[in-house]
Amino acid sequence: MPRSVANHRQAVVELLAGAATIKGNRRVPLLDALGKPLAVDVHAPLSLPPFANSQMDGFAVRSQDIPDDGGQLRVAAPVPAGATPTALKAGYAAPIMTGAMIPEGADAVVPIEKASPGTFPDPTARDAVVDLPAVAPGTYVRNTGSDIRKGALALAAGTLLGPAQLGLLAALGLATVEVPEPLRVLLVTTGDEVVEPGEELTPGKIFDSNGTLLEASMIQAGLDVVRTGISDDDPAELLAVLDSFTREADHPVDVIVTTGGVSKGAYEVVRQAMAGQPVDFLPVAMQPGGPQGLGTFNGVPFLGFPGNPVSCLVSFEMFLRPALSEVMGTPAPRLVQKVHLAEPLSSPDGKHQVRRGTVAGDGILRMEGGAGSHLVHALARANALVQIPGDVTELTAGAEVEVWML
Amino acid sequence: MPRSVANHRQAVVELLAGAATIKGNRRVPLLDALGKPLAVDVHAPLSLPPFANSQMDGFAVRSQDIPDDGGQLRVAAPVPAGATPTALKAGYAAPIMTGAMIPEGADAVVPIEKASPGTFPDPTARDAVVDLPAVAPGTYVRNTGSDIRKGALALAAGTLLGPAQLGLLAALGLATVEVPEPLRVLLVTTGDEVVEPGEELTPGKIFDSNGTLLEASMIQAGLDVVRTGISDDDPAELLAVLDSFTREADHPVDVIVTTGGVSKGAYEVVRQAMAGQPVDFLPVAMQPGGPQGLGTFNGVPFLGFPGNPVSCLVSFEMFLRPALSEVMGTPAPRLVQKVHLAEPLSSPDGKHQVRRGTVAGDGILRMEGGAGSHLVHALARANALVQIPGDVTELTAGAEVEVWML
């Protein structure tokens, strides 16, 4: 009986878990960590803000110096941002800029717009005065540690590092950050009929799209990709390639992914090359992408995807990408949405079908192309993978379906 | 009167439009185009599939050779993928692999599972026969051009190039693709109080988070970022830096973005450095991120963002990022969702407020931190920007609000 999609995904998670543990972490400059997960908890080495500062351009005051109906204060020396001000004397108001340190003694800021006159006096003027309204203690003061206190958890391990998270680490004074060492994956496309894009296409041949499609997917998922050329349908040649990146390599790859050669035809090169290795070739109850290989080759985790481009993308999205999310903390899982079918749909009984479609702004799903796994042009128009469970065979127009947004 | 958010965004679009037109396009290997928009329409240089081929491992047959209740055919030489088969003679069935060319004369494929015996005969065997059920013409045949016909539009200019789109270009035999030349942006953070992460923090100083936060945002948006060190509050020094990347440069930058020094304080270095240049410093009816600079410096488009990190991120997301989407075709616009507030919210009258929040799987929005534009730790927890229009001052728990997903 074919294996369920969930069971096969779990098998891929278990296969990759060991490799991820062994890889460990590395410390990189902040911007090199963009899009990667944080490897370890980061606690704040200092409070933010590091000192009480002004939220406005205005006057720092002792709030008790101003009567309820307002009052006049003498103007002290201005406090620019970046300076350490002297203590504020009673009866004085210090011109202060946004972000500048609140002087000792001051407990509130009156914005310049509420002052009279409403502009700062010339810093060289003596005996300047300013009329200010009453102000409650703490007004427009950003207190030390009001965003985060020294020692508190700033970011938890596993947090995806985007602009805001890297901005926080920078604000905490950190110039580098620990991220997981990426997995190195060997990507081998196979097939006598396949030639590289840009080469000459002779009769019976097709251009390799799997290599580009999967390498791009893997790069987006944070993998280091090692490409070989296309392997033809000679198992000995494929074996030699795989040996050179595993048993014979100083730094073996962490994962092997092949395309093609896993079904039940007469020339299944990947099946033949894996003879004697602990690898299963099994049907998963999914369409496309049903035939899958899974195991280890010379001890290195191995995934054998089918040979059609749509099958490759579906295999990656349904198995490898979610397993990487779980095991490595990256990439972020696909956004799952419930949308409504524009047209009726039928699906084979007993197989989880993954169709391609476009979700428009109105939440209506239009299908792109039929079920055929060779329809790469239709795939390129789609923005969603449509998930149709194995026990669903007919859906009417307007029916709700789950999609994974690409 | 402050300018509306929409009007200021339009002003940024108009400012950048000229720069984008001048830059032109460049041709890059497929994988270097990942995440970038296609610059020109691409028409298919060949049909996909390039030739009629089998969708299954099975037997290629002339459908009229098999009676309605099935029949026996002689087994011809097998057709592996990548080969050019000889024509199929009447009364014969040719073992054929998935993706292999349909022999001349054949018009259907019977899957191996439906054949008896259900395995392929030894290719060296003579006089083998196979029992096959009747099959309709065209069954399991992928016709030439059924995905896309030679000459048809494969991808339209502006299409974002992800794995599927690059896979299609590869399938069409293309090894390179035209993408827009990226804009080069000079990013200058200013302030006497700001020091680089990793340096020593003396009293009154803070670490620069704006540089990291904005550079990361710009990288994700497809810009080439040129960083200077932090510029202090001396206008002459800032002027010298800006001159060196514009008037005095062999290849001037395409855009200048500064942070800080744009509001109404006494030490506004960016305002001072822009004296004599056609630059407006104006209030936008938005919070945070209200004070904005916009114009040209030595003819180069200039955007002056405020100095707080949250204001910087909001300025980027509300103005520069959408303008790039419109003018350059990349990045993709933020996903907009309607969600429901977990708690009541108040907002100042007359200002479009951009708060930070987290949307959970249940579509409920929880706020992260208050309105303060210095709350970078709260920002780092958020996954959404909450859009509260200027005429909304009170929202109850459960009220629907628009969010932009980060």
CATH architecture of the largest domain in chain A: 3-Layer(aba) Sandwich
Number of domains of chain A: 3
Tell me the strand percentage band of chain A.
25-35%
Could you say which structural class the secondary elements and strand pairing of chain A correspond to? alpha/beta
Helix content of chain A: 10-25%
Tally of extended strands of chain A?
27
The CATH homologous superfamily of the largest domain in chain A is termed MoaB/Mog-like domain
C-alpha termini separation of chain A: 30 Å
Largest sheet strand order of chain A: 15-12-16-20-19-17
Give a concise summary.
The structure is a homodimer of 406-residue chains. With 406 residues, chain A is α/β, with parallel strands linked by helices. Chain A folds into 3 domains: 5-24 and 181-328, Molybdenum Cofactor Biosythetic Enzyme, Chain A (3-Layer(aba) Sandwich); 53-142, Molybdopterin biosynthesis moeA protein, domain 3 (Beta Complex), CATH 2.170.190; 336-405, MoeA, C-terminal, domain IV (Beta-clip, Beta Barrel), CATH 2.40.340.
Tell me about this structure.
Chain A is 20% helix and 28% strand. With 406 residues, chain A is of the alpha/beta class. The first copy, chain A, folds into 3 domains: 168 residues, 3-Layer(aba) Sandwich (Molybdenum Cofactor Biosythetic Enzyme, Chain A), CATH 3.40.980.10; 90 residues, Molybdopterin biosynthesis moeA protein, domain 3, CATH 2.170.190.11; 70 residues, Beta-clip, CATH 2.40.340.10. In chain A, helix 3 packs parallel to helix 6. The radius of gyration of chain A is 31 Å and the shape is elongated. The mean pLDDT of chain A is 93. Chains A and B meet through helix 2, strand 14, helix 3 and helix 7 of A and helix 2, strand 14, helix 3 and helix 7 of B. Chains A, B: It catalyses: adenylyl-molybdopterin + molybdate = Mo-molybdopterin + AMP + H(+). Chains A, B: This is Molybdopterin molybdenumtransferase.
